[in-house]
Structures
1.
Amino acid sequence: MDISRLARDIRKGDRKALAKGITLAENETAKASSLLRTLEPPGRAFVVGVTGPPGTGKSTLVDRLVGLYRRRGLRVGVIAVDPTSPITGGALLGDRVRMERHANDRGVFIRSMASRGWSGGLSRATSQVIQLMDAAGFDVVLLETVGIGQSDIEVVGVSHAVLVVLMPGLGDDVQVSKAGLMEIGDVYVVNKADVEGADALVVSLLGLVRSMRSRSPPVVKVSALTGEGLENLESAIEAIRARFEEGDLEVRLRSASGMIAQTARAVLAERLAHTSRERVNELALMVVKGEITVDAAAGLLLK
Amino acid sequence: MDISRLARDIRKGDRKALAKGITLAENETAKASSLLRTLEPPGRAFVVGVTGPPGTGKSTLVDRLVGLYRRRGLRVGVIAVDPTSPITGGALLGDRVRMERHANDRGVFIRSMASRGWSGGLSRATSQVIQLMDAAGFDVVLLETVGIGQSDIEVVGVSHAVLVVLMPGLGDDVQVSKAGLMEIGDVYVVNKADVEGADALVVSLLGLVRSMRSRSPPVVKVSALTGEGLENLESAIEAIRARFEEGDLEVRLRSASGMIAQTARAVLAERLAHTSRERVNELALMVVKGEITVDAAAGLLLK
């Protein structure tokens, strides 16, 4: 494969070339890494992570955001990340429907990503795809998770702004706060504003974030389905994007730091997987013989 | 906390002490590690991993296995692993119901585990809990996943025997094989034997595993609900347990290697998380300035 030619085509915004680059990121991160060195992504893309429990309407909301940004003339990439197996993946993402809807809009590029390997590999690939979309000239990248857990929180760690999407009737707020969602949001979205309990959820969220964090992020009530309240969400996101555009280091460093940390972790895991099978077996034998504990063996492996 | 006293109580099979040890594994792996050094787990516990897509009846099957082993007079530990957030966890596991059913049986210990942190932390904690149960004198540990994806496959990598539970109507077999489930099973269980398509699924699974692997694992059809076919499953598992009891290295090394590798990976991730925030920020600044790519920064971080 001719990396410099691929890089040139991606920079031109060629969709097939971008798709090829993304496939590299998914399957051959080392080659994707070399592609990115050639590309020198400009860092112009604003990355919005969208996470939250399943069923809260994240996909519909992402569709709304795509519409909002397209009306502003911005090019939008969407990465739908599903860290689960392909068995549940297809059903949860339903991105084929979405891809059809935007099929004729050259300013939108949608890609869903799942992983067959360790989830760390997915984090690294996601970082690379963001950089590829950036290099291909996309202004905004929406990073959507399927919302089934902890790995989602990991995935959105590479964003400039994180939207946590919730809805009334999810169970008590203590659960939400336990899930780690209270620490990561820049904007809290109460979707399905028409459902009973929406106002109460807004109030309790405001209380929660105020009690837990020094600077309270905004809580906005919307209906992704009807469009109600979207202007409030838009202005909350745009406030962060404005800081991004001004070169605000806090916002910019956040995404870069997240990507570096996740990539480093993936690289470590890969190294461990490749170099030490014999040594692992040797140590496992000592564990089986009762000479050392598993933790001690892991310590020796890392020496 | 007096580690040597806790160790003594766990060795006696004291349930409160075991629970305390498990809480350490969940929250303070370093202390749990020191507890395990004191305990010197004997490696007598046979670990059976139970994985597969959601809705295939894994919990019911695990309950059946608990019954089978209890009738043989063996003590059984159950670890229900849910790598997702607490939001979905409680609903999926339903272990409270099960805990009530076995509440008066001192030969059964059930614990569900979820993670607030990175899923690697969960893997390490799971390894430690297996060793704690081993030290507390449990003969069999059943490690059940909720079946939502790739992290499940990781979790059962610490087992001596892996049961992959499937059922008719999950979608085509290609999806099952893509999910990585075809590589990891020692026994394939087609549950819900009475549902249409069960026989066809058995036939196609047999074809799949024969085409993919040099030694074909058994495929057994059961109904966890009615008990139909359980004797075939039992003998398939017991064939592996017999090898384990004979000290078969292949079986014994498998669990130990899995635990060492997962623990090492978790330790690496923890180190990375703790030592290098300043350095990450420094490198992130270089990325933001466009001086280096994220992958290059990750490389420098690991130097």
Note: Confidence is low (pLDDT under 50) at residues 85-93 of chain B.
2.
Amino acid sequence: MGFTVRFRMMKSEEVPIDVPREQFLAFDAQDPLAEVRERFVLADELIYLDGNSLGALPKAVAGRLAHTVEQEWGVRLVRSWNDPWIDLWRSAGGKIARLIGARGEDVAVADSVSVNLFKLLASGLDLRPNRRVVLIDDSDFPTDRYVADGLCNLLGDRVTLRRAKGDLRRALDDDVAIVLSSHASYLTGALADMRAVTHAVHEAGALMLWDLSHTAGVVDIDLSGCDVDFAVGCGYKYLSGGPGAPSFLYVAPRLQDEARTPLQGWLGHEDIFAFADHYRPAPGVERFQCGTWPVLSLSALDEALDVFEALDMAAIRAKSQALSARFLELIEPLIDRHGITVTTPIEPQDRGSQISLSHPDGYAVIRALIERGVIGDFRMPDIMRFGFAPLYVRFVDVWDAAAALTDVLDSGSYRAERFRARTKVT
Amino acid sequence: MGFTVRFRMMKSEEVPIDVPREQFLAFDAQDPLAEVRERFVLADELIYLDGNSLGALPKAVAGRLAHTVEQEWGVRLVRSWNDPWIDLWRSAGGKIARLIGARGEDVAVADSVSVNLFKLLASGLDLRPNRRVVLIDDSDFPTDRYVADGLCNLLGDRVTLRRAKGDLRRALDDDVAIVLSSHASYLTGALADMRAVTHAVHEAGALMLWDLSHTAGVVDIDLSGCDVDFAVGCGYKYLSGGPGAPSFLYVAPRLQDEARTPLQGWLGHEDIFAFADHYRPAPGVERFQCGTWPVLSLSALDEALDVFEALDMAAIRAKSQALSARFLELIEPLIDRHGITVTTPIEPQDRGSQISLSHPDGYAVIRALIERGVIGDFRMPDIMRFGFAPLYVRFVDVWDAAAALTDVLDSGSYRAERFRARTKVT
């Protein structure tokens, strides 16, 4: 069932890069976060650089989930709704809040990123009734664009979707009600300037919605300090909440009393068990709950978040930047030699926690790396993505990955992978 | 952590009802479904009559979930998206399809009931562009009403919500685009006539959306034979998929090519990994997927559904009707003696699988029963609900529950419970 790990330590005469591996082992020895890796299930020989797609499994999750299933569901049955299920989203939301610069009570865990984008875009339009444009960054992850498009289609003539190519700020005007942008691009890893963009959007009288899917848990975010209006984010990438873990959403305290969601589910009601005739939104972010949440998936996320408990986001960010910077240094000789384009910004402060390299045979190269136990992923049209989750990626993994990439490219061994079926890793 | 089970076998001189318990043990001995209970985790002394709120835990789920967590997530990591996660909703949908009279490919498992109601109501309006009314049954579960109301508010003047009190059919006219009704009422258990209502709705030129939350897995439903347009249902009641298990939805084959959801998420796209510029809906019900599904919760549901594999829905329905009929027989003497109103239809073919009794002290009575290990639930304003999940409720449970109810009422012991805080069981 597991990976067939074909990556072996290379003998010194085969080592394809100049920098000694020992130097990276020494970085690990000095890394204040090194021992956090012990809290994850990861085979020692696996080089996992896809935590930006699916975070690794925290060891504590299996036990927590067994307890949720066998005791909470199996034995206590429906009574577990009173405790602990009814407040599970608050628990997880509170843990995420600290990582993104928010108060615990301003974050709800609910539904998927796509569904939460719909709720918040509609809220933004509702809060700016005299404006008719939803402005999005054209390079966002497709679901952001599709959801915005679906909402605008539903609302017909009342609303228009505007897609900004390049700087969002140049597309602002008096018609814009709400702006949606990824904090870091899923494709290039480029990091937006949250403070400056939010400020410009406010200057134009619009509201700002950030998609934190590629930054929550890895970039030190300050939603409150940047005066952000809305945010959504992903539970299963750097937060390691498990495949398809519920999403989170943030609403600025100043907007919570007036923001409304069109997805009026019973669990967003002011008094859930009154079974009231009319919908009355709960106070605060609870109104953005909708249907019954997936307790098993939510329990896993809640447990996974405890890994962050004693950790400082600044330290996580520092290690993330160091990992990606070291990787860039090591693969620099490949750029000219193999016609690679680095599509991620070179300055560490301008990127999230991934390095994207474009190469005409990117898909085949990624396949060849996976065969060797180095897990990155591929995104259309020609992008190889390498994500550096600082809670469990070691500096020596960076070295091993760079060495493998160098060897795969120099040897041309990837060419055998060219014609295989396209993979579907996310 | 478990229940404090205080229900003990009563000595014969204390037995408060005339019918001998042995007779119900004999029913169990003849029950062709009796051994299915062995596939669930249930303490022998627990009388669980709340499977209409949260289905009991199938024994196989714990192992399946451990595998999903430890192997699929922990070891195979992102590669598990290729297999088995990408098709997990199809697997679960196919298993549900057989229980509701649909083809496997016409059922998707996705999101929550509330979110799916939103998608399908919006689809119905889109398919009937010249009509402006969403018609709902006013006695439906609150979320159905709230969701319909939220959608209509979002669409503004274009659409009106009409709430039918009494027979829906009398509220039909040329303005109605889509009709939403529960197949069985969450409150009274009354079963609607799916065939007749759907026919009447079609005669009026409208589309019919059934909420099967209280019938899927317990009533033999024939969506295809009744020519139903749309349906949604709940994964965590009679299907035993676990707390907050994903919902399912059905779209008639004849509508699948034209039905559109406004919740356009990336996983409903025709070619998920093309990351295409524009949204193009996937063929069939797949287009009703939205964001990334909660794999852990979905795995549990998929496993739970295997309990139904060799079972015949007609046999399940027959046992369900027998259980609720026997319960009514046993508690009949209480009706006059304690001023109880049976709010569920008396004829078995007119109800789902629950018996609802109204009593001014209903809340206190339910509390007193729970203290004795008989788990029913309470719904505002004064309804005691007893659900009979035929896969694991025994005839002797019916007897024990009726005896306990008789004793609690006759002894007046429930009065001590009157002033306790309102419970929040769902």
Note: Chain A touches chain B through 95 residues (CB under 8 Å).
3.
Amino acid sequence: MLTQKETATLEFSRKDERIAALLELVEKIDDLKSLSDLGEWDQNTQLPDGGGQTRGNQMATIQGVMHDYTTNPRLGQALDDLRERVTGAEYTDADRGLVYQCSRLYEQATKLPRALVEEMARTTANSFEAWRRARERNDFASFVSWLSRTVELQREVADHFGYEETRYDALLDLYEPGMTVRKLDTLFAPVREVSATLLKRIQQSGKAVDDSCLAGDFDTEKQVNLSKQLLVGMGYDFNRGAIAVSPHPFTSGISSPFDVRLTVHPDRHFIQASIMAAIHEGGHAVYEQGSSASLARTPAAGGVSMGVHESQSRLWENAIGRSEAFWRGQYATVREAFPQHFASVDATAFARALNRVRPSLIRCEADEVTYNLHIIIRYELERELINGTVAIESLPRLWNAKYREYLGIEPERDSHGVLQDIHWTSGFGYFPSYTLGNLYGAQIYATLRQKFADFDERLSGGDTAFVLNWLRDNMYVFGSIYMPEELMKRVTGAKPDPQFFVRYLTGKFERIYGL
Amino acid sequence: MLTQKETATLEFSRKDERIAALLELVEKIDDLKSLSDLGEWDQNTQLPDGGGQTRGNQMATIQGVMHDYTTNPRLGQALDDLRERVTGAEYTDADRGLVYQCSRLYEQATKLPRALVEEMARTTANSFEAWRRARERNDFASFVSWLSRTVELQREVADHFGYEETRYDALLDLYEPGMTVRKLDTLFAPVREVSATLLKRIQQSGKAVDDSCLAGDFDTEKQVNLSKQLLVGMGYDFNRGAIAVSPHPFTSGISSPFDVRLTVHPDRHFIQASIMAAIHEGGHAVYEQGSSASLARTPAAGGVSMGVHESQSRLWENAIGRSEAFWRGQYATVREAFPQHFASVDATAFARALNRVRPSLIRCEADEVTYNLHIIIRYELERELINGTVAIESLPRLWNAKYREYLGIEPERDSHGVLQDIHWTSGFGYFPSYTLGNLYGAQIYATLRQKFADFDERLSGGDTAFVLNWLRDNMYVFGSIYMPEELMKRVTGAKPDPQFFVRYLTGKFERIYGL
């Protein structure tokens, strides 16, 4: 439960004429963003093939309108009127968060010419269609021209925003305010180290985790229903959400906290994919659904950064969703969905199977030990793509070589390699958020375990509400009014520190593999 | 096949700088309309309950933006530059249609203040939610305030547009250019006459049509699949469309001809509802999908008026979709969907069952003889609502009294009476289009039968493509570049004439009932 004082910090000072003027401008932008998000959701889940091209035009147009609205000098003026003033005690934290987030939007928008914004939207829509077909047909060559165009446009974006050291820093900042290659390299070094070390120790131990119970023939419609039930189990609210199937799972905060949807992509022969995607996207979604309703229709609702967002998807997916305690509480649902298949598998065996460490080709299905190596490969490649030293045509070769180097395996088809992810149809700089998310998530998880001495017992008993309630009251409800570092301090009492993840990963996999 | 000359009439003169300037403005408006339509489609098919209120805000905002764009003085100037000039031989029929349709939009928009447009969008979204709940709970009282507000707003709209005789004329004109109460009364008189006479002759004949084969227990998912197959059978293109379930069936030309979707609402116990809704909405949809691609992203694509639109839904639904010849060709699909149920029912019996005349409470399920009486009731009530002589609270009483008078029956629940239709959540003046559609449709049907001496034989053999191809080449392809009266002359060689319908209805039901 929030105290009265905390509730007050979540309300905008609507009676203040400056705040009211700002809200009037930004609520409309947020409404348009909702319809733009709906257009994207639809494109991924339902749009007929024939509608692809005109949808590209529609997205370009609405992005253009949003750009006009976001670059409205009246918005600049409203923000100027508030920037100093809002630090005063008569304003709330919500007001300050609103002004900060709106200023960020305004600056990002005014730095980009409208023609570039429209061109990016059009390219994204077309690139998505090209990628979808290229992936289906294992035809990287047909995607090259769109990917080249996206790289060119992203470089232009970076140049407009400016940077101190490398172009890529400008793109990183879009997803994680203040992040740079230099900082990332420091944060990621212990992650690479612990991943490589643990992988080696596990491989040398000769010990194995049996995950054969996750393979079989699983009706995809039943998998979607199972996803629904698991989402209900973790507290996702279907009265403010929906689930659909798309080529790549994603969550869309169409209008947080009131309309937050997610997708899964069931694999008929491997049930882990849809189960873990549901919990991962569910993590994103409960974070968005947890924003205070008072922040709705503004950029102060929803997650504060991509890294913090991924911290919630990874916390729910890995720390909770791959724990034995969680499955002791939830496994009945899986068994009921596929009773014959799981008749002789118990919760302990099922949870253990979800933790098999095995270098694999597909990021989405990777285990916790190798996952960050997938990210580091993408991070290194996209950093080079943007900084200009890599030819697009050579990407499949470089991709495969890095997989050989870091994971000891190599894809035979680009569909399972460089074409697997949707991300490069729209932009660069996002991938590092996943690993940042693992770092933040491990730190928050450590706090949760500290707050609840009976953490495992409660999960084992089927209770997840205590986790969601604590996260909602201490983190989600604030939407994006506190920046990542401040939020981490409020939630965990400390700045982001990669050692939480190092300890978490080592402890967990030493236990599982008896190292 | 179109001749080269006909193809030329369908192309805009994009090299003409005035046409190019106009297109640049209207294509963006059309893109926004597509996203607004998508918002509505989503609201009816998928939006979670919790998203209703913010969706209302989103719709209000995008309507407001569209209103700004449509009232842009540059658009007025572009139209002024073209209005006289476009009549010249160097311009095409598509150019002329574009200028006409854009002028209509521009005038409609400039006559309405922006605040009124936004208020209407907000009221529509909220009224829809209120109606949905009121219908579920059979609670007309809870809908009264929203309906009152809609009536007030529609009166304001009429006053802004102006009219010569009655306020309601201004609203009629929105759906059917040039239509008035005076004209409608003349067109509708023979319809009322033939409906009443036929109903009396049928009831007095003592003869019956057995439709018991349409009742039973029909899995709703299978019904949706059957709808899909029937739509494929009539030539609806799923590569440019989609089907979903909604409380009231409708078609949305989100981006004609590339993205045209429809919904059905299966009744578990009465299969006729979903079958006829699929064919009805399919008629709307193939019309929208038939527009020349050269007209896309402009108001010259898609149907020309609501009456002409309904002519296609009613032509496909009734003249074709309730004929024995059609079902000789398509019945196998129904039988395969529900083999046990239809084991002992043949195509003749099935088609005959679809033509049972029986006064009923639900318009959507009404037979062809009584259907127009449902419309005339709504027409008379909404005309009075707008012209101001009826209190909203008395609507259920008036509704029930008219049903007693015209059809001899009366609903026991408002859910089956005054609350059954979605239309009054958004506006007034649409209902007469259904009966106009029946008139136009019968006239076009007479032309089709004249063009194809072997019409019934072809349908019986499972061929529907010849109908769709003829309609596409002679009517659909022109989108809305020709006004209803001119289009009717091009397609049928004559102006709209209610006697085609009188002859069609009388001939058909004398045959079926052996009168």
Note: Chain B touches chain A at residues 27-28, 31-32, 34-36, 38-39, 42, 46-51, 53-55, 57-58, 60-62, 64-65, 237-242, 254-255, 258-259, 261, 296-297 (CB under 8 Å).
4.
Amino acid sequence: MKVFFDEIDVLTESRTELVDISSYVEDHVRKSNIKNGFCLAYALHSTVAIIVNEHETGLIQDIINKVEKDFPKGMGWLHDRIDDNADAHLASTFIGPSRIFPIKNGRLVKGKWQNIFVLELDGPRTRKIVLETLGE
Amino acid sequence: MKVFFDEIDVLTESRTELVDISSYVEDHVRKSNIKNGFCLAYALHSTVAIIVNEHETGLIQDIINKVEKDFPKGMGWLHDRIDDNADAHLASTFIGPSRIFPIKNGRLVKGKWQNIFVLELDGPRTRKIVLETLGE
Amino acid sequence: MKVFFDEIDVLTESRTELVDISSYVEDHVRKSNIKNGFCLAYALHSTVAIIVNEHETGLIQDIINKVEKDFPKGMGWLHDRIDDNADAHLASTFIGPSRIFPIKNGRLVKGKWQNIFVLELDGPRTRKIVLETLGE
């Protein structure tokens, strides 16, 4: 059994933003030399989520619009008395801080229309994403 | 350490639909001969999700109704200019393409009222689900 | 390769409630003696979810309010004809019954503002949460 770790820094430029990290995750799996196992992409933050979907410009904007509509800023959230970002915490809570993938024959398994994104919910910031591959 | 893979084809008949794949996942775990580990059910699609809940006819319809209400079709989504299914991509993005389970004493661990479903969001289609069990 | 299991009982006191189980999960990882791997927290219930976010009193109430607003009780759900808790099943379906974490150098990896909670959706009840750490 082998375990291999990476940590990537993602710099975001807007409050709500998607950053495609697919190539970083694929490089990580290649460097791990692990043939079969699991790969976890895990965000060390409570105002970020990891999501999987198609990299298409219109859809990326649809995702941003949908998040901002479903988790609106400044609605009198109680957490806003401490830090003005309750909406970002709520979206991260429901969507989740990670996604996990099969590794087969040394490659990350995902569909043709599946890319891996960091969903920034309270940028701009520098975000740390842990990548871990475990297998043989 | 052992790793065992299966891929199942799921044929759906409606645009939004739940297909119970619990017995396929349990057969996969049995065939793996793995006693303790993890089992991942992963959909290779960006308009599908994997979910876990009770197999009850009314609830299945409630889930379909709730998805269609929260992710409505044809709301002027930008992705619809490319392909008329942005609502399906959005639901898959937020719910997620996979669920993972403990394996203990050779059995899939889940609650009495937990079944595993493919949530089709843009059917009818043939869908590919990767099953992977890793352990000892 | 090693696999280590725990099961914790969580007693809830309200219909919707967050219970912070971070210290239980950290104790479990310590007891496992596993240095590098994955840790899964998995709820054996279809009216519970596992979530990760900041332990701040205002935010905890915001999460409860948001769940109750987005998954309202008594809206004529079909499952309510069987058991009066369709709203709880729907929230669990979309949010998910588990979260998974990296284990590195014998410690659970999570961000400074990330705690692990059981999200009770149909309490008060006693809930069983499986903790599993796999690694070396």
Note: The mean pLDDT of chain A is 98.
